[in-house]
Structures are given as structure tokens and as C-alpha cells.
Specification:
The structure is a single chain. A hairpin with a 5-residue loop joins strand 8 and strand 9. The protein has one domain. By secondary structure, the protein is an alpha/beta fold.
Length: about 220
């Protein structure tokens, strides 16, 4: 928009192209993954709530594209997700808790219901300045440890360390306007690389193809 004004171009006769939340992060991903908006599902038909940005592993089970830029994502293909909020307040955190409850019900194909709870990490990105303090968010993260990073643009960045402690980095460069956002993107990229190395599960596509069909149904009588 700044460039348009400088060159005298009209800005009232053409709407800007719509940018999806998932498109904001695609350029920062390592090879082999894709960022999508959608719903995560399992082979038993359970589904999560709709998520802003789900990072999927391209080499795993295929993702089904749906109307309105929404994808249906097998849980085995999901690596992490990002929620973008206008502000990080109590209502936003409660919504994230509800999303997590729906995710925790999902099961990975090929394992039993007792040990197949599939939890992948969440990252939060807040835009508005009227958000909870860093210490309030850090306290919430201590009780919701599936959320590993929270960033409010221009304010703060909180991170769950490998040791289990919550870190609130203090910047030494006060002149850098977007230091929290840079820290967020660095954690996003590094976290993905680590998750890709850790993901050793071999997806069982037959569980989706024959869901609801018993073994006896597949026997052909001669």
C-alpha cells in the first residue's frame, strides 16, 4: 500500500488479494512439509476443531482438500499447529484448551486406544497489544504444556524449554522492533526440523480405507 501511494496508484478500486493464515508461514518451512488450514481427523472418524495453521508431513498420509481452503488432515500427517489470535486473553486461551481437548481424543492407526493418544505441539501468535502479560501466559503454559511457544507482536515471547521450564527471553537489542516475531519464527523453523527427525511412525493407510469393515468382511468365499 505504501508503494501504491508513492506512485500515485489508486487503492480504492481494487481489493487486495486475500492472504490465508497458512500462507504466512509456508515460506519459513523446511523442505518436506506444507502449512494448511483445516481439521485433523483419525481413522475412527474423530475430528478436531478447525485449526488456523496445521503443518503436515508431505511423506505421510495424503491430505484431503475441501471447499473454502479447508483441508481434512490425517493425524499421522500432522506435525504441529499455529493459532493466530487478535489478542491473547483469557477467552483465547480457553479456546485453545478446547481445541486441545478435541485433539487429545484422536488416535494413531495401528495402536490401541490406551496408548495411541496423539499430541502434537501448538504455537500461539497474538497481534493485538491488549493481551495478557508474559508472566500470565507463562503460568498458563505451565498447566497446558502442549503449547510450546507464545508470541505477542511487539510485546513478548514465551517458550517451553526442553528442561520443562518456561522462558521469557529479555532482549538486549531495544532498537529491534520485531525481535519477538523473529524469535517466534526461529522457534517455528527449529521446532519443525526437530519434529521431522523424531517422527518415526509408519502410517497405516489401510486403517482409513477399511474403517468400519471387519476382517471377516474381507474374506472371499471360494
Amino acid at each position: 500500500m505504501r508503494g501504491c501511494r508513492q506512485h500515485g496508484a489508486r487503492t480504492d478500486d481494487r481489493r487486495p488479494a486475500r492472504v490465508l493464515p497458512s500462507q504466512l508461514f509456508q515460506g519459513f518451512t523446511p523442505p518436506g512439509v506444507t502449512v494448511r488450514s483445516g481439521i485433523v481427523c483419525d481413522h475412527q472418524g474423530m475430528c478436531s476443531r478447525q485449526l488456523d495453521c496445521v503443518v503436515t508431513l508431505d511423506s505421510s498420509l495424503p491430505v484431503l482438500g475441501m471447499k473454502g481452503d479447508i483441508s481434512l488432515i490425517p493425524v499421522e500427517s500432522a506435525l504441529m499447529y499455529i493459532e493466530i489470535k487478535s489478542r491473547i486473553d483469557r477467552a483465547a486461551l480457553q479456546q485453545v484448551e478446547g481445541q486441545r481437548e478435541s485433539i487429545n481424543r484422536l488416535c494413531v492407526a495401528g495402536t490401541s486406544a490406551t496408548d495411541a493418544k496423539f499430541i502434537f505441539p501448538a504455537m500461539l501468535l497474538g497481534i493485538d497489544s491488549k493481551s495478557l502479560s508474559a508472566h500470565s501466559v507463562a503460568d498458563w503454559m505451565r498447566h497446558n504444556r502442549d503449547t510450546v511457544v507464545c508470541c505477542v507482536v511487539g510485546q513478548y515471547f514465551t517458550k517451553l524449554n526442553a528442561s520443562g521450564t518456561i522462558e521469557i527471553p529479555k532482549s538486549t537489542d531495544a532498537s529491534h522492533e520485531y525481535r519477538e516475531t523473529l524469535a517466534f519464527m526461529h522457534a517455528f523453523h527449529d521446532g519443525l526440523k526437530g519434529l521431522m527427525k523424531m517422527r518415526q511412525h509408519e502410517p497405516v493407510i489401510s486403517a482409513y480405507l477399511f474403517s468400519g469393515i471387519s476382517e471377516s468382511d474381507l474374506i472371499v468365499n471360494e
